[in-house]
Amino acid sequence: MSFLDWIVLSFTLLAIILYGVWKSRGQKDMDSYFLGNRAMPWYIILLSIIGTQASAITFLSAPGQAYTDGMRFVQYYFGLPLAMIVICIAFVPIFHRLRVYTAYEYLEQRFDLKTRTLTSFLFLIQRGLSTGISIYAPSIILSSLLGWNIYYTNIFMGGLLIIYTMYGGTKAVSYTQSLQLAIIFTGMFLAGWMVMHLLPEDIRFNEALHVAGKMGKLNVIVTDFSWTDRYNIWSGVIGGFFLALSYFGTDQSQVGRYLTAKTLTESRMGLLMNGLVKVPMQFLIMLIGALVFVFYLYFRAPINFNQGLLNQVHNSAYAPQMQELETRFDSLALVKQGHVKALAAAMQTSDDNVIGEAQRRLQATEGEADLVRDSANVLIKKVLPGTETNDTNYIFLHFVVNNLPKGMVGLLIAIIFLASWGSIAAALNSLASTTMVDVYKRMVNQHASEAEYLRMSKIWTLIWGVFCIAVAQFATGMGSLIEAVNILGSLFYGTILGIFVVAFTMKKVKGNATFWGAVLAEVLVIVIYLLNIVSFLWLNVIGCLLVMILAWLYQQGERMNGAIRK
Amino acid sequence: MENAPQEKPPLFSRWATWYWLVAGVLAALIVFFYLFTKHYS
What we know:
The structure holds 2 protein chains of 2 kinds.
Chain A: H1 3-23, H2 30-35, H3 42-53, H4 56-69, H5 79-98, H6 105-110, H7 113-146, H8 150-198, H9 205-214, H10 233-250, H11 252-258, H12 264-298, H13 307-314, H14 319-349, H15 352-383, H16 392-403, H17 408-444, H18 450-472, H19 481-505, H20 511-531, H21 537-565
Chain B: H1 15-40
């Protein structure tokens, strides 16, 4: 990075911290700390919801995912708008009527304390672990870029955001998220424009899309059904619906965002607007990844986008073998450049045979290059046993650092930090609010003063921040981080959602039945995941249905037992 | 927050219209993505 990049990066990060601290001065009690005095308008709710969901992982991993696997990941979001509708109808009015701090408070009123506590703990485990991964995501950038130790980088990254989250509570989170998103959208638009600008002059936007499409990168809709295929329209609409319903309806990191609204209408409008903008937004982010793929057909791509790993191999006894593979990879890249130009020319002819032939040649060469990449990954594993060689998270970063002009690189790196901070800050705030409201205030200390609760809320924000940084230290070797977070969520979300669905729709099912149904369902979900029977998105559906069925069966059993005793 | 589940939505007279709008936009996007995939593959 140039000096100008460092200036842009440092100024942006410092400005966000100061803005967060300034906007949130004057916290008096838990209501202002966790709910911002319930005074937020719908557009702040919308930006806060988007900012909470879209972490650095979204902006790092998603374009890389499009590069490697095509754009079919977009389908994962198809269930989200439908979930927003259901949440507006069923969840939000209840949370508003009861004036709860957390979603789990409602469960004690509907069931009992143990069901509330179980759900809170499932949330705390899941959210604590995923937030650790979210801290690790931007840390790999600094680590790879500057050669810093990843462990110290995690501490630096997490430590900076704890400052304003701990000090300012939910108000700091919401207002900084709005500013962060404004900067993020500007930067992503500029990055997309730069990809097109950097392509050869004779390749316009439409030609670039045709090339990406011929290479299978514009597969936005996949209609073939398979239980084990991660992204198709069926798993996206059905599995994605259950995941989004659980995430936005029962995950305190999101519920805490729309509970800050000043009216029910403001909450609903924030959620519905999210339903309108999320899918197109994700489509555009992934489109950038598909265009980056086209860019690297014309220009040299590294054999592995994680430069840090390559450097370590080059400094080992295996350096000559890696050199040999790179020479082979570069010569194939030259052949690919010829083929992609031929494909672009063939598309001008509109002759399907000519286009098909050029496409086959390019795909065959790409296949050969992939084999060489695989060999390089085997070599990396020989030098660094146990290291993750999947470079999906590094693809977009490599493009940014090596191809964008001075200043822009600093801005893009800042964006990745800000995106990450937005979601992590909301997560820390929700972890602290759940711990305070559902555990500390409910079970440990019910009669403290407001000042004492506020002090403890800040301490718990700090404790969770330290815990998440500790988790981040173990996050290396998780492959695509966006998938790791989603898989982790799917392991718990189905069960949590099932508990809420039973609460809302099965009036005759009581606390005992729901509690034991949920415990058994969670065990079964983890077993199903370990046996690798279905793709992870289906775990949300399975977990939810299992809780409903098992709780109903338990309730029937109790009823029959009662009848026999009489 | 106000305890008013009967609050009127902005622009439309019923919340149901907003819900149909969100579902309709999703359906339109899926159709667009399907045509996009077919056109460029």
